[in-house]
Structure formats: C-alpha cells, structure tokens
Amino acid sequence: MARTRIPTPHGTVFLHLYHNTLDNKEHLAIVIDPAQYSTNNQSIAPPIRSRSLDAIWSNDETQEDRILRGAYVGRLTPETRIPSRPIDQSRPPTDVPPPLVRIHSECFTGETIGSLRCDCGEQLDEAIRLISQPIQLSTSSSATIPGRGAVIYLRQEGRGIGLLSKIQAYNLQDVGHDTVTANILLGHKADERGYDIAAAILRDLGLGSEQGESIRLLTNNPDKVMALEQEGLTVLERLRWYRDHGSANPSQLCPQVHLRVARQASA
Ligand SMILES: Nc1nc2c(ncn2[C@@H]2O[C@H](COP(=O)(O)OP(=O)(O)OP(=O)(O)O)[C@@H](O)[C@H]2O)c(=O)[nH]1
C-alpha cells in the first residue's frame, strides 16, 4: 500500500491506496485528519493512521523506502522527512466525538464525467466537506478541533455490477425498466456490493475496531451498518445525510442538503 497528501477544496487529505487478497482492485481510503499535517502538533485526538503503512515491512527497508510509500509523520518537504514508527494507538479523550466515516462505491459516470443520472459525484464531495468540518467538543461550547474521519472508496462500480453492465442497464432504463429490473435482466442481483474490504480498511485505520475508536457512519443505507457490525466493527451512530437515490423531491432532502440548496439559491 501507499499514502500521499492531496490538497482538496476542503483542505488537505491523505489518500491511501490498498492492495488486497480478495480481488485485484486498488481500493482507497481518503483520510481527513488535517491535525496530522499541522505544524503545531497539538492535536488532542489520536491520529488516524494505517497500521500496515506504519509497520516495518522488512529488515532492509530504508528510511527512503518508508518515505516513498508514505510512512512519514507531519509534513513532507525538501527539508523535513520524518519516517513514522509502528503505531501505539491511544484512546481519545471522552469529549472527542467518534470519527465520521463514509463508505462510497465508485461511480465513473457520476464522478468523472458529471452524469446527472445519479448524484454520486456530489455525494463524494459532500462527504469530504462534511467530514472536514471543525468538531465542537462537548466539554466546552467554544473549543473545536479540526474535522476527522475517512471516506472509504470501494472499486465496485454500478453497485458492484461493473461499468459495462451499468452502461447496458442505463439503456434498459431508457426503454422503461427501473434500476432493479435492469440489473436483474442482465443476470445480476439488484445490488452486488460487499463491505468486507471496507471493514478490513477501517480496521487497519483503527476505526470501529476494538483496538481503535468507534465510528459514526454517514449513510441512508442500513445494510452498510449491518455489514460492518457483522464484521465485528462498532458503529456508534448512523447519520442520515443525503437524499435517497432517485428522490428528486426537495421535501425528502436532509438538513445538510437543504443548507446546500439554500446556499446555491442565494449565490
Ligand atoms: N447499477 C446501477 N448502479 C448505480 C446507478 N446509480 C448509481 N449507481 C451506483 O450506486 C453506487 C452508489 O452507492 P453508495 O455511494 O455506496 O451509496 P448508497 O448505496 O446510495 O447509500 P448511501 O450510503 O445512503 O448514499 C455506485 O457504485 C454507483 O455507480 C444505477 O442507475 N444503476
């Protein structure tokens, strides 16, 4: 695996690329924890870091090897390069809310070419924006810490049926079938997504696992919570956050979307 810093409109994030033994796809974790990047290093919450990244991979691994794959702490600059050490995870103080997590499945059409058949591109952006929002600590009405959490980006296009079948399904939708029937006519299940890889990535990041912190999950989809709990992860709270797919009715929008719509209307 490897990790690097990516500047985004919502701030600095750390992109983690994972290899796995279940499929030959490169799944990703977008870790939002800008405190790790700050120079004053006074974060009261534990850093969200990958155990496998910070592990020592071999006896002959050099500091340069570690830096190259992203196993460093703080900022990487021409003058500063501090390799990380294997993690000793500490539990956060009790007034720090659990990290916010979004499990997002790949959607080339919505994210890359801006398809309006779905709102996946907007959802991805909104997830990073929401997780990046400063967090108010419960013990003090004025103290805040930088937003922290992660988007787990799974390479399961078209609810797991793949891009080719998704394109064919769109044609079936254009001739009058709904999304579920279109998938079934193509020999697929209505939804072929799985969340075991997401659970493994979350465990690696110390999110939701016994050794780490519990999480708050951004989703309208209770299957995602069930799947993570079956994998032994702890989801403290499910936050409904967006409109359900296919719902164009503004009365069904959640508060964040109402806010965004209001902002757009006044722009
Ligand atoms: N087959 C098919 N897949 C679609 C269609 N529209 C969106 N998708 C896929 O649906 C997936 C979106 O899933 P998620 O981001 O996990 O979100 P969700 O299942 O809607 O649940 P939430 O967590 O509540 O947002 C992506 O893989 C998209 O490619 C469609 O019309 N047909």
UniProtKB/TrEMBL annotation:
Indicate yes or no for the key word Hydrolase. Answer: yes
InterPro entries this protein is in?
GTP_cyclohydro_II (IPR032677), RibA (IPR000926), RibA-like_sf (IPR036144)
**Catalytic activity of the protein:** GTP + 4 H2O = 2,5-diamino-6-hydroxy-4-(5-phosphoribosylamino)-pyrimidine + formate + 2 phosphate + 3 H(+)
List the keywords (alphabetical): GTP-binding, Hydrolase, Nucleotide-binding, Riboflavin biosynthesis
The reply on keyword NADP is no
Pfam families in alphabetical order: GTP_cyclohydro2 (PF00925)
Q: Which family does it belong to?
A: Belongs to the GTP cyclohydrolase II family.
Protein name as catalogued? GTP cyclohydrolase II
Native source organism of the sequence: Boletus reticuloceps
